[in-house]
Amino acid sequence: MKPGHSGGYRGPVRAAIFDWAGTVVDCGSRAPVQAFVEAFAGFGVTLGEADVRRFMGLSKRDHILALAAMPSVASAWRARHGCGVSEDDVQRLHDAFTRLQSETVARFAEPIAGVLPAIAALRERGIRIGSTSGYPRSVMQALLPAAAGHGYAPEHVICEDDVPRGRPAPYMALKSMVALDVWPVAACIKVDDTPAGVEAGRNAGMWAVGVAMTGNQVGLDPDQLARLNDAERAALQAGAVRALGAAGAHFVIDSAADVLTVVERIEQRLAAGERP
């Protein structure tokens, strides 16, 4: 059945739209965390990594606003600067974050183990590969050639400053679908390691796939993941699955390397007449 048929779409998945850090590259989503910590440190305020990860997935400006609104951060800022965080301060923090991220992002461009073969398998099935990112375009310009050097080059990239509002708004996911010339939305999947990214997929009307172990929810690099014992791994996995499920994920997988099994399940549900 063709897209748009009055009986509804029952065909295959036609597009997979991936997040970047923690989903395809940068196991543990370390690059943005480091940049946020360093940006606030430049203004004399110390952030904990857990504080930064709490709001990961939001647009970078919204992320800064959320951090600034935390009582501990607001108190530390007032003690250092004698006043609350102003709009000018938010802009200065955003500028500092962007500069720091542009300087360091290429160091975190290595693809997560197993993800490139999985994406190649999707392409063999005729599935288009798009991507969205909370990074602004200036940061992505530094990341794209580094990722390409490791063998990853999606067909299209949408950044947070390409749309009116970032995640959890659906605009990046929908703009990627338009750029790929793929429809209907039921034929598209959004793969992301953050609750805000999962929400964006749901808000776009797509199948939302959460990534549990390699992304922001766990926040560990490959060596740290390898050192986990079974109990530690199970506890971290359970917490990530809960958070992504609460955000509305239709499926949660440990890594984007597992995405093909999800595609097959989605196609079975589509053939049965189900929708996201």
Q: How would you describe this structure to a colleague?
A:
There is one protein chain. The chain has 276 residues and is α/β, with parallel strands linked by helices. Helices cover 49% and strands 10% of the residues. It has 12 helices and 6 strands. The chain has helices at residues 30-41, 49-54, 60-69, 71-81, 87-104, 115-124, 137-149, 171-180, 195-204, 222-226, 230-246, 259-271; strands spanning 15-18, 128-133, 156-159, 188-192, 207-211, 251-253. The protein has a 6-stranded parallel sheet with strand order 3-2-1-4-5-6, with helices on both faces. It is globular, with a radius of gyration of 19 Å. Residues 1-6 have low confidence and may be disordered.
Describe the secondary-structure layout:
Elements: E1 15-18, H1 30-41, H2 49-54, H3 60-69, H4 71-81, H5 87-104, H6 115-124, E2 128-133, H7 137-149, E3 156-159, H8 171-180, E4 188-192, H9 195-204, E5 207-211, H10 222-226, H11 230-246, E6 251-253, H12 259-271
Parallel strand pairs: 1-2, 1-4, 2-3, 4-5, 5-6
Helix pairs in contact: 1-5, 3-5, 5-7
Discrete helix count: 12
The proportion of strand residues reads: 5-15%
Can you count the beta strands?
A: 6
> Which word captures the global form?
globular
Mean pLDDT equals 94
Unreliable stretches: 1-6
Radius of gyration: 19 Å
What descriptors fit this protein?
globular, 276 residues, alpha/beta, single chain, 12 helices
Care to give the gist of this entry?
It is built from twelve helices and six strands. By secondary structure, it is of the alpha/beta class.
